Each structure stands twice: as C-alpha cells, then as structure tokens.
Please model this.
Amino acid sequence: MVDKFKDYIQKKIEILKIETTEKISKILGNIVFGVIIFAFLLFFIFLLSISLALLIGGAKGFVIVTAFYFLIILILLIFKKRLILNPIANVIIKNTFQKEQKNEKKEINKKS
Model:
C-alpha cells in the first residue's frame, strides 16, 4: 500500500512538472510573439508618424504629431487600470481557470 502511495505521489509530481513546463513554454512563446509584433508595430508607427508629420508640413507637422502622441499617453495614464491592467488580468484569469476546468472534467470522465 505504501509503495502504491509513493508511486501515486511520484506520478502526480511528474504530471505537475509537465503541466508547469507546458504553461511556461506557452507563456514564453506568447511573450516572444508579442515582443516581435510590438517591434514591427513600433517600427510601423515610427515611419507612419514621420510620414504624417512631413505630409502636414515641416516643424508644425512634427509638433502636431508629437502632441497627438502626448494626448494618447495622457489618456493611457489616466485610464490605465480600465484600459490596460483589468483586461490583461481578466485574460490571464480566464485562461488559467478554463484550463483547470478542462483538466478537472478530464479527470472526472476518467473516473466515470
């Protein structure tokens, strides 16, 4: 009986290691993907901003584009919690609990 219990504990530890590795690898993959997309988006916005500033005309164009970005920064700072923090937390919580519920359903189905 003790040997079966030890085997059970070892298998649970192995499953936890595998699940943890899977979660970490997915998180890191998403982070790398996000960084790559962010880099290209930043480059795109940079070139678009220069083009727009030149299209508006000289120094006045650059001042207008800069003021626009300053306004966006202010809006993000004022509404940081509602626009950034809460949505990210909700996505993380939703993904975490959905996976746990799927795992629980699988275990219940195996026992049935």
Notes: The chain has two domains: 2-78, 80-112. Residues 20 and 26 are 10 Å apart (CA to CA).
